[in-house]
């Protein structure tokens, strides 16, 4: 018995095709007829885009669930076809060679002392992904964590390159709180129950005021103090 081949998808029927067929032989159309035809087709196209979008979202949700189970929270270990007891060596990020036995979790982070699972297609976990010289998705947080005598010490936690500003979630929330306090000092009342969303002119005026204060302090520090001569009695 021959297997039946899958049927090709049926062509989409355009809304109002019967009306367009009646007007197909017309040499001139009124403005109303043209606008109505375009409106029908735009609405149908929007419905197609909307259904296609939600279909992609369902597929993305299924793939994310599979990825999270495989590389995130799965309690199972990957089976190795080599016999148990075989010694495997791999190089860590610090240049040292680590030997492990088959049967251990070989998907662990290659950073020395880290036992977390490695991310997909790399040998490092999310906390140590910057140790991978081949990755191009992450960069270090640019916020200064400490001011040392040798210079500023940056946070350097992994942040996606698409994130602007380049700040980890902790420093991003801290920056929002500092901005909220600065706006309140400027005399604007903003509710603390929601995220600060001031207008642009408010932020610009506050920044200009802070810059002018810094310049005044620097100018006072550079101007020498006048020498006062005491009169002899």
Automatic annotation (TrEMBL):
Subcellular location: Nucleus
Record domain KANL2-like probable zinc-finger: where: 109-171
Gene Ontology CC annotations of this record: NSL complex; nucleus
Keyword Nucleus: yes
Predominant place of localization: nucleus
UniProtKB keywords: Nucleus
Protein name per its UniProtKB record: Uncharacterized protein LOC113863530
Originating gene: LOC113863530
